[in-house]
Design brief:
Beta-lactamase; Penicillin binding protein transpeptidase fold; alpha+beta; transmembrane; peptidoglycan glycosyltransferase activity; single chain; 43% helix; 762 residues; elongated
Length: 762
């Protein structure tokens, strides 16, 4: 058989060939694997380098593993805290008014607001605020407000850098807080006032405003909760309603009304910048404290607004050329002492401690107040040495006790300062003497009766003898009561007092409103007792209105919020009759002579007026109190530390201040006479429009007054010029006289009854 040639054609598998082929393949793979396993890794660097690298790698792996785990834990804690705060947040509107107490708004006699106490508030939403005001706030406080979620890491880092560069601690000075964080602080992180934990609201707020690392940490979840709960406009609403902006204004609406007398929706760019500038330091930048400083701060805010494209260059130039100015009421700053007095005299739960918003209508007259302040300042500028610490106080009221103006000291800008018109009790000096002469006239004496002005010694049981002296150290001998009062003669006054009786003098003074403790010693008649200027002026108002006492008052009516019906009405006004109409009329005539020809000559006006000077023996106090038909005004001058005045008496600077004040407040008013009893007893000087007129017996135009004048003429109302002596003292050639032992006195008593009946007395 022929052997086949070429490559054999395989039609099946050859067991032998396959086995060898698979065996060779497996062997090659196994050898390659063994070869790879045994091949050593390439060595890079020495052992030290490899050791450091391995250590760093290990530390990084540990740190990284710890960081992401800590971050996860922190995120869980932050989320839980945010959720906790979120659940406790109320509706946004409930957070607008955060005051613990209410406010008191005071209106003058014409219904115009002139003063506020407490924290005034006016709720307003961001859509009711001028857009330029919102822009000013955002430009000043948080330019990225609409772009963050409550926290601005960039702002915090920038603030820390600024603080450190200035040498302060990282959290001292600039806080880098967003508006949301500031709202968190305003809300005290959700805490409310607890009287057990905090003594008062001031301590509570101070704790809320504390800047510490822990409080900053707590602000983060609270801020996130605010952002999650409220819209940006809601957060801005809370901020603009709760922020304190100085002068007792809480929120931008209240501040706009306080400073500019307009709603926040109507402010212009300059006013908006001034309001936004208050956020940094409300009391320091308040325009009522320093307008120029507030305007300078507003210029900075205007620059920020221009940088952030809220204002173009034309608008910027216009705003800077026309800076914001205070309203007339805010600029006047009138009535601070008056407002403090009303707060003190009103019921505490409706004034100083009110939790409601209260409106009080008062007797205050802004025109008279400004006139009194101008006159006082002018006299001090012209007559008092620069740098003098001497103080003065002024009270102006109507005859019924309605207080129209009050100056409690030379500084009329501060609130809550010492009020020398109502709080300072000082010896009254000779300004007390009208009560001595009023008691004598009520007892039946007349202005033409005679009293000795001569040396006098009074023996006081248990004490050394007391000998009063006149200011001039000279004596006038026998003088009428009118002369004794107008020349302020001390020995004549004490003789009269001892004759009438100290108890009667004390009764008249007390019933007229001198409620301070009155001495029982003979020095009573020379003003050794103390009184406030308000008390003394009110007592003179009782003389002015014909002998009926008055209680000085400032409150006319009080309302809660916008209630239609007042909660309380006037407290004060006319009281009981103290002197008869005859005695009061005669006393007014005698006091008019003090100004016409006596110690009060510097107080002379272009119209009838009456008053009395007063100087204490140590020259620590000087007074002038007097009245016209329209107003009663009292002036006190002295030092707070009781330093004696140098060369100042009641007839000097106090009389000049009185004259300046009265001239100012009477400008444009008609000239009216005082209602007095004519000194010769022929009739009654009746007040009214035009010149004074004396109604005598038989006058047809006033039958009642004519009948009264006839009774006076028939009764010998002036008493015939009797000589008055102190008990136990006998003038030459005469027997001692006491009131009521002559026909003249009897007729005076009858006359007093007639006057009371005809003129409506008691």
């Amino acid at each position: 058989m022929k052997r086949p040639t070429g490559t054999p054609k395989r039609t099946g598998r050859s067991p032998v060939a396959d086995k060898r082929s698979f065996a060779d393949a497996n062997t090659a793979k196994t050898k390659a694997k063994i070869h790879r396993k045994r091949k050593p890794a390439p060595k890079r660097g020495n052992v030290v380098v490899r050791g450091v690298a391995g250590t760093v790698t290990l530390i990084w792996r540990i740190i990284w593993g710890s960081l992401w785990r800590l971050a996860m834990v922190f995120a869980l804690i932050l989320g839980a805290a945010t959720a906790y705060y979120f659940v406790g947040l109320p509706e946004a509107q409930a957070l607008f008014d955060g005051r613990a107490r209410g406010s008191v708004t005071m209106m003058d006699r014409e219904g115009r607001v002139f003063a506020w106490r407490g924290e005034t508030f006016g709720m307003v939403s961001s859509d009711k605020i001028a857009p330029v005001l919102k822009e000013a706030v955002i430009a000043t406080e948080d330019r990225r407000f609409y772009g963050h979620m409550g926290i601005s890491p960039r702002g915090i880092a920038s603030a820390v850098s600024i603080n450190m560069a200035a040498g302060r601690g990282p959290l001292e000075g600039h806080g880098g807080s967003t508006i949301t964080q500031q709202v968190a602080k305003l809300l005290c992180l959700g805490d409310s006032f607890d009287p057990i934990r905090w003594k008062n609201e001031a301590e509570f707020e101070a704790d809320c405003r504390e800047t510490s690392l822990w409080r900053k940490v707590k602000e983060v979840p609270f801020s996130f909760a605010l952002e999650a709960k409220y819209s940006k406009d809601d957060i801005l609403n809370i901020y603009m309603n709760r922020s304190y902006l100085g002068a007792g204004a809480r929120g931008f609406e209240a501040a706009s009304q306080r400073y500019f007398n307009k709603p926040a929706s109507e402010v212009n760019a300059a006013e908006a910048a001034m309001l936004a500038g208050l956020l940094r330091a409300p009391s320091y930048y308040a325009p009522t404290a320093n307008l120029q400083r507030s305007q300078d701060r507003a210029n900075v805010i205007l620059g920020l607004m221009a940088e952030q494209n809220y204002l173009d260059q034309t608008e910027l130039a216009e705003a800077r050329a026309n800076p914001a100015r205070l309203s007339q009421a805010a600029a006047a700053r009138a009535g601070g002492y008056f407002a403090d007095w009303v707060m003190e005299t009103g019921p505490g739960f409706l004034t100083t401690e009110t939790t409601e918003d209260v409106t009080i209508k008062t007797t205050f007259d802004q025109r008279i107040q400004r006139a009194a302040e101008r006159a006082l300042q002018r006299v001090f500028d012209e007559k008092v040495d620069e740098g003098s610490k001497a103080q003065a106080a002024v009270v102006v009221m109507s005859a019924d006790g309605a207080v129209r103006a009050m100056v409690g000291g030379r500084d009329n800008t501060a609130q809550g300062t010492f009020n020398r018109a109502t709080q300072a009790k000082r010896q009254t000096g000779s300004s007390f003497k009208p009560f001595v002469f009023g008691a004598a006239l009520e007892a039946g004496y007349s202005p033409s009766d005679i009293v000795q002005d001569a040396p006098l010694t009074i023996h006081i049981r248990g004490s050394s003898p007391w000998s009063p002296q006149n200011y001039t150290r000279r004596y006038s001998g026998p003088v009428t009561l009118t002369t004794a009062l107008k020349n302020s003669l001390n020995t004549a006054t004490i003789r009269l007092q001892e004759t009438v009786g100290r108890d009667q003098v004390r009764r008249v003074a007390h019933d007229f409103g001198i409620v301070s403790n009155l001495t029982t010693s003979p020095s009573l008649g020379l003003g050794a007792s103390e009184a406030t200027l308000l008390e003394l002026t009110g007592a003179y108002a009782g003389i002015r209105n014909g002998g009926t006492s008055v209680a000085p008052y400032g409150l006319i009516e009080l309302r809660l919020g916008s209630d239609d019906q007042p909660l309380m009405g006037q407290a004060g006004g006319f009281g009981e009759r103290v002197l008869s109409q005859r005695a009061a009329g005669q006393l007014i005539y005698m006091m008019s002579q003090v100004i016409d020809s006596g110690t009060g000559g510097r107080a002379k006006l272009d119209r009838p007026a009456a008053g009395k000077t007063g100087t204490t023996s140590s020259y620590r106090d000087a007074w002038f109190v007097g009245f016209t038909e329209q107003y009663v005004t009292g002036v006190w001058m002295g030092y707070d530390d009781n330093t004696p005045l140098k060369g100042v008496t009641g007839g000097g600077l106090p009389a000049e201040i009185w004259q300046a004040v009265m001239s100012e407040i009477h400008e444009g008013l008609p000239v009216l006479p005082l209602s007095t009893v004519s000194p010769d007893g022929s009739g009654i000087v009746m007040s009214g429009e035009g010149m004074p007129r004396v109604v005598t017996s038989g006058s047809a135009d006033d039958p009642l007054a004519a009948a009264l004048a006839g009774a006076m003429s028939n009764g010998g109302g002036q008493g015939g010029g009797r000589v008055i002596t102190a008990p136990g003292e006998t003038p030459q050639g005469q027997a001692p006289q006491t009131p009521g032992n002559t026909n003249s006195a009897d007729s005076d008593d009858a006359l007093s009854r007639a006057l009371n009946g005809i003129l409506g007395g008691t």
